[in-house]
Write a structure and sequence with these properties.
The complex is a heterodimer of chains A (234) and B (726). Chain A is of the alpha/beta class. Chain A has one domain: Rossmann fold, CATH 3.40.50.880. Helix content of chain A is 24%, strand content 25%. In chain A, the strands form 2 sheets. Chain A has a 9-stranded mixed sheet with strand order 2-1-3-4-11-10-9-6-7, with helices on both faces. Chain A starts with a strand and ends with a helix. In chain A, 55% of the residues are buried. Helices cover 34% and strands 23% of the residues of chain B. In chain B, the strands form 5 sheets. A 7-stranded mixed sheet of chain B has the order 8-10-7-11-9-12-13. In chain B, strands 23-25-22-26-24-27-28 form a 7-stranded mixed sheet, sandwiched between helices. In chain B, helix 7 packs parallel to helix 8 and helix 7 runs parallel beside helix 10. Chain B is globular. The chains are: A alpha/beta (234), B alpha+beta (726). At the A-B interface, helix 1 and strand 6 of A face helix 8 and helix 10 of B.
Chain lengths: 234, 726
């Protein structure tokens, strides 16, 4: 199977994601230039972290107009796997593929540190290697990761089980103290209703190797590979 | 002799009358105003090193691993497996004093371009910062930290290390030194030489505006009341543009016909064109009308002296321009053909084809007359007043030190820097050196930046030596072998005889220590005139950036204790007193005494022991014993590892003996922990290296304890330590 990793001007997690994918059995990498609408046969599109277009207007606000995003929208429409990480999550929200928005961290400061996440959906293509309620340890690195949505949207997300990851303590308790950026309901990642578009602020590609301090992120990549391989087989 | 310029005009370009006369003499005519401006910036201390050059000759700059020493955009060293590490440190002190965020941000942007110009991809940033005490200096502190993070985070280059100190002398003139480390295949290392007559000079990246004019000259003056008016001399950074420039320059290496890449830094086009031509012994002709502008109505003077950021000069073999232009267009970057390489040794500036300046390249880059200034040895350091010291509970002193601004946890700072991007940071900030692995190989780079202004104030020669020794120990404590140094020399006005003396002494100290330890200096920067009204001259503050290499990064060591039951040991044991210590300053308000002695033989023995023990896998943790002495080092190991330590009481007879043992800053020491089974081998190793190895105690529990002498809970220590900067 093939991961298509989108490169916008200002993207910087592309190579980190590529590094992880290259270690996976049965997976290959294709970098997708934002000016090119062709997804080159990708089975899973990753919108990686970075500061696309410098985040000068709003995070992700310009990137959504790139030619590649139109193709990504159609790909998602057809049920293709789309995975937005950090800036990629922001782009997914700006382009309407996911609800809500990511605003300035409540503490007004950039934060780069390890956090714990509790997984609430272990039935997704991206998470089926995890157990429900499993706690994973993943780094964050953002200044604008504070998930915000109006009350109606939030309750819809909750009712339909679209919250995939919440910031928690190491035991999985969702506490205010464990929330690094002020996100509503401690939300760290959500999925669309259909379950094929995931957005998350934390960086799984930074913890797919024990030498980097943890390997929980690898489970997400392995899940996506298995799901894509299965989809290809069927 | 000349009437063409007045004093006011000379002051504006920071030239002396004697220098002006030299120019007229060498040119055989009066320079015009544009030429005068160009000579002014290139002859500034910042660009010409006219004051420091004779002193810098003492530094050892060669070695079997050195691929590029000083004189290029950055230094380069062979680290094995075909990789070259490229690195340099640079100061951005004066801009940061006036506009902390942009000053720091563009400091980072500038040093990144130096590394990029060598063909290397930046893989790490470090920063060395000095401020006046908190809370008064919070505006500087917060602004600089935000600026460093703002630029590096947006670029996607991890900031993996650094150091921060707070002292009164930096209140009016904070120091911001940024270091960048990059990697390139050794056979693709680039040099910025404008070779090949007729080759094209392309200016790529940002448009040129009026920002930063006279920045280099500004850096070569003291900060006074008019500094606020110099705010326009501070540039504004655009890290997004630089990220695009970085990627384009990386892709550029795959194209044919690329001769050289040169950063536009201090003195803008004037210096980058002149230096690039000088290195090739060539000349250059450029037309300012072809330079893309951000503003209308700019004069040739403004274009040539602008320090607008995010620009690069690219030298292309004639005929290869279209492919290069296409590449930059892909990244939405402008690439303007502004001129060509010539063979007449002249830098000719045209405006719409009409010559407006014509200067010999060599006059610009090497013409500044060397200044040997009067030097005056300063009186020895004030003596310690030991009689005035009433020792209290050592536990209280430990808590006070751990909670002090200079020794408290740096986490509130480094968590604002992305230190993980790149998937290579295998030892994050917070310990001794950071370790960044080279992805795809087993090699690891240990990176640190270090300096102690107080030691240098008390004895600049010893302070220079100790800055090198301390940086080396940071690297060695991770299990890495020190490879090479980049230095940033921050001093006051050299026109003060005692400052000039300090500069000479500190450089001599650095040179001797580097020579002794076998670590060459491959790049560096000099920042003089760090003075301000009301606060006077800063401490002489040489800062040492060091790179070391680990053959196998998986064998790296960290400072935190690892397992209960392990032995805690001190490697090395020398003569001990409280002179120049953090304890003496923080607890008793004395900045006094001669800093600890630099003992080369002991440093070498401790290094060899540490590297042998690390390679053999005998150690569970290792930490350098530095400011705050043994007890602070132990407390740091405990806090980083989340484990306590139980030790029998230290033998200490006599007045202040216990305080001296706990807090004295004797050099060449490491604190290590190891399993009991490793003990025989460690002892054998210590004997072989003629080194003292002292068993301090055992890892375990939830406090730091010396029987009958001190008992402090880890929770209490952590509280003090983690809140020191908040």
């Amino acid at each position: 199977m093939k991961f298509g990793i989108v490169v916008f001007p200002g993207t910087w997690s592309d190579r980190d994601c590529g590094l992880v994918v290259e270690q996976l059995e049965g997976a290959e990498v294709e970098y997708l230039w934002h000016k090119d609408a062709d997804l080159r046969g990708a089975d899973c599109v990753i919108l990686p972290g970075g500061f696309s277009y410098g985040d000068y207007l709003r995070t992700g606000a310009i990137a959504r107009f790139s030619p590649v995003m139109e193709s990504v929208g159609e790909f998602a429409e057809r049920g293709g796997l789309v995975w937005g990480i950090c800036n990629g999550f922001q782009i997914l929200c700006e382009s309407g593929l996911l609800p809500g928005a990511l605003i300035r961290n409540a503490g007004m400061e950039f934060r780069c540190e390890w956090v714990h996440l509790v997984c609430e959906r272990a039935d997704l293509p991206f998470t089926h290697y995890l157990q429900e309620h499993q706690v994973i340890r993943v780094p964050i690195s953002h200044g604008e990761g504070n998930f915000f949505a109006d009350p109606a949207t939030l309750s819809r997300l909750e009712q339909r089980g679209q919250v995939v990851f919440r910031y928690s303590d190491e035991r999985g308790y969702v506490l205010l103290d464990a929330n690094p950026n002020g996100s509503a309901h401690n939300i760290a990642g959500i999925v669309n209703e259909r379950g094929n578009v995931l957005g998350m602020m934390p960086h799984p590609e930074r913890c797919a190797d024990p030498q980097l301090g943890g390997s929980d992120g690898l489970l997400l990549f392995q899940s996506a590979v298995a799901a894509a391989v299965e989809a290809l087989a069927s | 002799m000349s009437l063409a310029v007045d004093e006011q005009q000379l002051r504006e370009v920071a030239l002396t009358q004697a220098e002006y006369d030299e120019i007229v003499d060498r040119l055989g005519r009066e320079p015009n105003l544009l030429e005068l401006g160009m000579l002014g910036v290139l002859w500034s201390e910042h660009c010409s090193y006219k004051t420091s050059r004779p002193l810098l000759r003492r530094l050892p700059t060669t070695g079997p691993k050195v691929l590029q020493g000083p004189g290029e955009n950055a230094g380069a060293v062979d680290v094995g497996e075909g990789w070259a590490v490229v690195f340099k440190v640079e100061s951005h002190n004066h801009p940061s004093a006036i506009e902390p965020y942009q000053g720091a941000a563009t400091g980072v942007g500038g040093i990144l371009r130096d590394v990029i110009a060598m063909g290397a991809r930046p893989v790490a940033l470090l920063d060395s910062l000095r401020f006046g005490p908190l809370p008064a200096s919070r505006r500087h502190f917060e602004g600089v930290v935000a600026g460093v993070g703002g630029y590096g985070n947006c670029m996607g280059i991890p900031t993996v290390g650094g150091e921060i100190y707070f002292e009164d002398c930096y209140a009016g003139n904070p120091l911001v030194n940024a270091m960048c480390v990059g990697l390139v295949r050794a056979d693709r290392l680039m040099r910025a030489r404008a070779e090949g007559t007729g080759n094209t000079l392309l200016l790529v990246g940002a448009q040129t505006g009026r920002d930063g004019i006279h920045g280099a000259s500004f850096a070569s003056l003291e900060l006074d009341a008019s500094a606020e008016e110099r705010r326009p001399a501070v540039q504004v950074g655009n890290p997004f543009l630089e990220k695009c420039l970085l990627e384009a320059c990386m892709e550029l290496q795959d194209l044919e016909g690329v001769v050289a890449v040169q950063d536009l830094g201090a003195a803008g086009l004037s210096s980058s064109v002149a230096e690039c031509a000088a290195r090739a012994g060539a000349g250059a002709r450029i037309d300012v009308a072809k330079v893309p502008r951000r503003e209308r109505g700019m004069t040739p003077y403004e274009v040539m002296l602008s320090e607008s950021q995010e620009r690069m000069l690219v030298v292309i073999e004639r005929g290869h321009e279209p492919a290069v232009r296409e590449l930059f267009a892909k990244w939405d970057l402008e690439a303007a053909d502004i001129g060509e390489v010539t063979d007449d040794g002249l830098l000719v500036v045209l405006e719409d084809g009409v010559a407006v300046a014509r200067l010999p390249v060599a006059l610009l880059t090497d013409g500044a007359p060397v200044r040997i200034l009067p030097s005056e040895r300063q009186a020895g350091p004030p003596r310690m007043d030991l009689a005035a010291i009433r020792p209290g509970e050592p536990g209280d002193a430990l808590l006070a030190l751990m909670g002090s601004a200079n020794l408290g946890s740096r986490r509130p700072v480094f968590r604002r820097y992305d230190h993980m991007v790149g998937d290579a940071t295998v030892l994050p900030p917070g310990g001794d050196a950071a370790v960044v692995r080279i992805n795809g190989s087993s090699l690891g780079l240990a990176l640190t930046i270090d300096g102690n202004g107080r030691y240098c104030e008390l004895d600049p020669y010893v302070g220079g030596q100790l800055a090198v020794a301390e940086a080396a120990r940071n690297v060695i404590a991770t299990g890495a072998r020190p490879l090479a140094v980049t230095d940033c020399l921050n001093f006051g006005s050299p026109e003060r005889p005692h400052v000039y003396w300090q500069l000479g002494e500190a450089v001599a100290g650095i040179a001797d220590a580097c020579q002794g330890l076998g670590i060459p200096v491959v790049s560096g920067n000099v920042s003089l005139y760090n003075e301000s009204e009301g606060f006077g001259s800063i401490y002489p503050t040489p800062v040492i950036g060091m790179v070391g290499v680990l053959a196998d990064y998986r064998k790296r060591l960290q400072a935190g204790l690892r397992a209960a039951g392990d032995f805690v040991l001190v490697v090395g044991d020398g003569p001990q007193d409280l002179a120049a210590s953090e304890y003496l300053k923080v607890i008793h308000g004395q900045v006094a005494g001669r800093p600890p002695h630099f003992d080369l033989a002991r440093e070498l023995a401790a290094r060899d022991f540490m590297l042998d023990a690390a390679r053999a896998g005998l150690l569970h943790s290792a930490h350098d014993v530095a400011e705050g002495g043994l007890l602070v080092a132990l407390a740091e190991c405990c806090l980083l590892g989340g484990l306590g330590a139980r030790c029998p009481g230290l033998r200490a007879d006599g007045e202040l003996a216990l305080e001296t043992a706990f807090f004295g800053e004797s050099q060449a020491r490491y604190l290590i922990s190891a399993g009991s089974r490793a003990m025989p081998e460690l002892q054998t190793l210590a004997r072989r290296h003629h080194l003292e190895l002292v068993l301090l105690g055992l890892v375990g529990g939830d406090r730091v304890e010396f029987e009958g002498q001190l008992k402090v809970g880890l929770a209490e220590l952590r509280e003090a330590w983690e809140n020191a900067l908040l």
